[in-house]
Design goal:
Layout lengths: L1 H27 L4 H22 L3 H13 L1 H11 L7 H14 L6 H9 L3 H9 L8 E6 L2 H12 L5 E6 L6 H15 L3 E7 L11 H6 L4 E5 L18 E4 L3 E5 L16 E3 L2 E6 L2 H16 L20 E7 L7 H12 L3 E5 L7 H12 L3 E7 L5 H8 L2 H6 L3 E5 L2 E3 L3 E4 L3 E5 L5 H6 L2 E7 L3 H14 L1 E3 L9 H12 L5
Parallel strand pairs: 2-3, 3-4, 7-13, 10-11, 11-12
Antiparallel strand pairs: 1-8, 2-5, 5-6, 6-8, 9-16, 10-14, 12-17, 14-15, 15-16
Helix pairs in contact: 1-4, 2-3, 3-4, 5-11, 7-12, 8-9, 12-13, 14-18
Amino acid sequence: MLKAVKRVAIVLLGVILQFGFAIMIRLFFYKYLGIITLFYNIMSILIVLGILKESTRLSNDLPWIILILIFPIFGTLLLITLGKNYSKNKLLKNIFEYEKKYNKLLVQDEKIKQEIEVNNKDNIKYLINRTNYFVSTNNDITYYDFGEKFYPELLKELKKAEKFIFMEYFIINEGKMWNGILNILKEKASQGVDVRIMYDDMGSIGLLSTNYSKQLAKYNIKCISFNKLSPFRGIFMNNRDHRKMTIIDGKVAFSGGVNLSDEYININSKLGVWKDNGIKIVGDAIWNLTVMFLTMWNANIKEDKNISKFKYNFNNNKNTGYVIPYGVAPLHKDLIGKDVYINIINNAKNYLYIMTPYLIIDTDMVNSLCRASKRGVDVRIIVPGIPDKKIVYTQTTSFFKVLYDSGVKIYKYKKGFVHSKVFLSDNRRSVVGTINMDYRSLYLHFENGIYMEDNKVVKDIYEDFENTFKDCKKLNKNDVKTGFIKSLWQAILRLFAPLF
């Protein structure tokens, strides 16, 4: 509610200033209207040129350019408030500081690195070169094709906790799922286990009370509401913590698309069957997630002087394929989430399967998908049959025709809503995580993904796709057609997609 009120207030203020300024000029300064108009236009052009000079993401910047050219005052105010000017944000500076500090603890095994170089593992090389997360081969990975399969395993592992439990989620919602988890957390905290919870303030708005952290503190559970909404924090409000992870004693970790709310395990889902997924890691790759969590945690409250104590050393040296959990952050120059997806698309040879709740993509992604299909790759994308947000779904459907005309196959999940975020290609490479195919995930949010290559779990992910295709409708030429009015509405929505 606060988010909506704040955005409405910003828009109203911008509109009032824009039209108020125009009326004032015509009433009191009409003799100088030509000069003022010239100044007005020069100001707009200079701001736009400044954006273009620095822009490496034109699809994302285009709405700002249009807004500023048409409404200089309103557009500039909106850009300052919701744009990417992070320089004065204290929390962001802290995240920078702790990322730099903890990067030294993410040490890449040189033998594995040489092996990757020799075997030309380009996707993995990109992640090593452009992030500080390391790749490991000593991991047991389990994939869960529905949230209700993931949940019992999560509870079972939580009950085994002896030292610490770290949980970071976009949404926590009181109900059967969260209550089952919370009962275990209370018990573990009473036993002296270090229990830490971090949830996104906007993601859980209206679901948890504003003093929820204090409520959990009564049970010795530490809790942070990330990037708490405030009318005075402006520019950073638009960047949310969309990550989802649980780390237990450094011995086991969970991630995937599942938030901590009942619909994610198909209890009281209003959107039919809720198709989601989870993943469990036992092995060296957990350290990447642990450092990711502690970076965000200590950026907020600066609790830990030495985080190495949270690392568990796995002594066995199994070679189970490459695994690299990685983080995505809006403060980085590289769009890691987007680039990893495009690298998979560009390297696909036989097939590329995708599950995503949202398909709101820029021209780079559209062209990569179309080129892959045109060179003979079997490209298939599964989207929801029942959408959760109508305007967002209209944006999603706006991409169907251009993709279909290039040979990309679109599948609608007939049973309900797809929330899984999965890429799979050639029975070799896969990403499972929190990263949607939309501007929010690819440009604005803190996210996490798990890249896997030559790992046996890829077969389980393939089986999930094959089973899901059976519950989908494959769209035909008539399904992707739209009339003039709808096409016009879709075009308008796509133009301003980065602002949603």
